[in-house]
Amino acid sequence: MIIKNVNIFDGINQELKKNMNVKVTDNTIEKITPETLTPAKEEEIFDGKGYTLSPGLIDCHVHIMLADGFKNLDSMEIDEAAIRATIVAKGFIERGFTTVRDVGGYSWGLKATIDQDIVVGPRIYPSGAALSQTAGHSDYRQNRAQRNDGTTMDSPLMRQGHMVTVDGVPECLKAARQQLFKGATQIKVMGGGGASSLWDPLDTIQFTRAELEAIVETATNYGTYVCSHLHVSPAMKIAIEAGVKCIEHGSEMSEEVAKMMAEKDVWLCSQYGTAGLLAERKIPLDSEIMYQKTERVGKGLIKNAEWVKKYKIRSVFGSDMIGTPEVHENQLMEFPTRKNLFGSLETMRQATSNGGELLKLSTILDAYPLGELGVIKEGAYADFILTKDAPSEDANILSDKDNILVVWKDGKILKNIM
């Protein structure tokens, strides 16, 4: 295919490349030029009409299999959850997200069927089950009568493999290796308390140093990295010292921790828009306890953004939506919130080239190793979105999916409303 007459935001630079033509061969970009390109067949030309071509968007914090609230998921069989997840997956494409990093969920089969073009969805960089200590953020038992004694598990949500509880170094090693065996591109751990779980206060520090270091060593030996769910600075500090390479959330990051992250080149994946919506109770949660914790998280992230800018912490786009397909539609509200905090250009870098760079930290376990992601350059994957105006100049246009006119993934048009 040849895409002609487009202005290109390449995922990095402010200045658009005007009046360009792009040649796609198979699923990668072969050539970008202002010169006229002639295809073998007329039907292989797509006229961009002078609109803006940007890289396909990347969301680095999703739970694609968690397509309902936790109480409802805890009463579902895995096949029902998977069918619902296909609707969520298609929604990502409709909103321009051609790649996601799944940081907790049994998404192996969904990834395989997407890669085989059986169902429509984004590329998935899977973590598999999120690892947690017992009584930690992946211990999603819905009441204290449910069992989790090593032989009996009452919670379907946990039994299906979306999350796993492990205690002690041997269990941590085995669980991490099991995710790698299944096909994880990175390992996800729960290093501190969470807002969406019932029994672990936000201020808890989860896993011992020895447990964390064992998981990090396992991932490192396989050429990849560990990302950790964290909110409070004491837990963040321990995780960074143990070798964790990406902090998920970091809502109450201190200046000391911000400096550590900058010095040790640790990435950050916060969810500013989602936290705001939760704090305002615009996304349904299962209990008052969860609402109270999310309100605290939302307030903390305002300061977090100041440290990100001051210390130039490497940051990526993440939405962390959990719920029905209608809840996942709120994903795009990250864009206006991030624009207000970081400006349009940096917001778009977070959602494109920064995300692509983070994903490539999986090195030899990279699920899609044949091209770059999040950039428009020769040799990169042919993942694009087309908008009338440039989102790098006004990221607010991406808050409405109808402004995303065309979506390509692997050089194939998966959405076209022009």
From TrEMBL:
The organism's place on the tree of life at top rank: Bacteria
SUPFAM superfamilies: Composite domain of metallo-dependent hydrolases, Metallo-dependent hydrolases
Domain called Amidohydrolase-related: residue spans: 53-414
GO molecular function: hydrolase activity, acting on carbon-nitrogen (but not peptide) bonds
Compositional bias of kind Polar residues: 143-154
One Pfam family named in its UniProt record: Amidohydro_1
Keywords: Hydrolase
InterPro entries noted in UniProt: Amidohydro-rel, Metal-dep_hydrolase_composite, Metal_Hydrolase, Metallo-dep_Hydrolase, OTAase-like
Ranges annotated as spanning the membrane: none
UniProt region (Disordered), positions on chain: 135-157
The protein's name: Hydrolase
Species in which this protein is naturally found: Propionigenium maris DSM 9537
